[in-house]
Design brief:
Layout lengths: L20 H11 L1 H10 L11 H10 L4 H15 L4 H5 L3 H6 L4 H15 L5 H4 L4 H10 L3 H6 L1
Helix pairs in contact: 1-2, 3-4, 3-7
Length: 152
């Protein structure tokens, strides 16, 4: 059974990045005994990062509830069709083209919503890097972009 220490209230950074990755892992290990055991036994897991682009967010949407291989296949089909995955390129695709790229109807809605939000400056990718995670969640919810919440 997982033992959680809820009394740990150290100040932790509100922005997650490569500089504070180990500090955040240590904080979580101080709360969760099983995680501490894993860190003590195997050390830190790799810090996986991706570029802050529309394509990255599209890739994350595609990865939801499917295998990573299936998501990558869909992303590669989108790349073939658009050359570069940008908001403008996504918005230029019709439903049949999205389906031909293995993108479900629901993910098409999310991806188009993302593209419209980026193009309309409702989502500023550069600014998101500077915000605490709580502000990113709040901003996505307030703006009505439920797609962001599913990605975060």
């Amino acid at each position: 059974m997982n033992k959680i220490n809820t009394s740990v209230t150290n100040d932790i950074p509100t922005i997650f990045n490569t500089e504070n990755y180990h500090q955040l892992c240590q904080h979580l290990a101080g709360i969760d005994h099983d995680l501490k055991t894993i860190l003590d036994t195997y050390s830190y897991p790799p810090m996986w990062t991706r570029e802050n682009t529309c394509e990255t967010l599209v890739h994350i949407i595609l990865e939801q509830q499917v295998s990573l291989a299936s998501a990558l296949a869909a992303l590669n089909k989108l790349r073939e069709r658009t050359i570069q995955i940008t908001p403008e390129a996504i918005l230029g695709l019709i439903d049949e083209e999205m389906r031909a790229c293995f993108v479900s109807w629901q993910k098409t809605v999310y991806i188009r919503g993302l593209a419209q939000a980026i193009k309309g400056d409702e989502i500023n990718l550069t600014m998101l890097e500077q915000l605490p995670l709580s502000a990113v969640f709040y901003g996505c919810i307030v703006a009505g972009h439920v797609l962001c919440v599913s990605m975060c």
